Amino acid sequence: NEKTGRDLMIYMLWQTGRFTNQEIAKLFGLTYSSVSRQVGIVRKQLREDKVVKDEFDRANALIKM
């Protein structure tokens, strides 16, 4: 799902601490408050949805190579 992929990218950028919500928002054509909302949603999904967690783990493993 493209939206899930986008939201995971937003979360991963946010998680690094290197970008402000405003900077992330600009990259994705969103508002900074949308970034905050999506981060909260992804955090919840990572706790509750195995499919999302697996997708996140796969993406994270690729980045850390």
If you had to describe this structure to a student in words, what would you say it looks like?
This protein has 65 residues and is mainly alpha-helical. It has 4 helices and no strands. Helix 1 packs antiparallel against helix 2, helix 1 packs across helix 3 and helix 3 crosses helix 4. The longest helix is centred in the middle third of the chain and has 17 residues. It is globular, with a radius of gyration of 11 Å. The model has no long low-confidence stretch (mean pLDDT 93).
Count of DSSP E strands?
0
Question: What is the average of the pLDDT values?
Answer: 93
Sheet having the most strands: none
Q: pLDDT under 50 segments (min length 5)?
A: none
Alpha plus pi helix count:
4
Q: Which range best describes the helical content: under 10%, 10-25%, 25-40%, 40-55%, 55-70% or over 70%?
A: over 70%
Determine the structural class based on helices, strands and strand pairing.
mainly alpha
Spatial gap, N to C terminus: 24 Å
Q: How much strand content do the residues show?
A: under 5%
Radius of gyration: 11 Å
H/E series, N to C?
Answer: HHHH
Shape field = globular
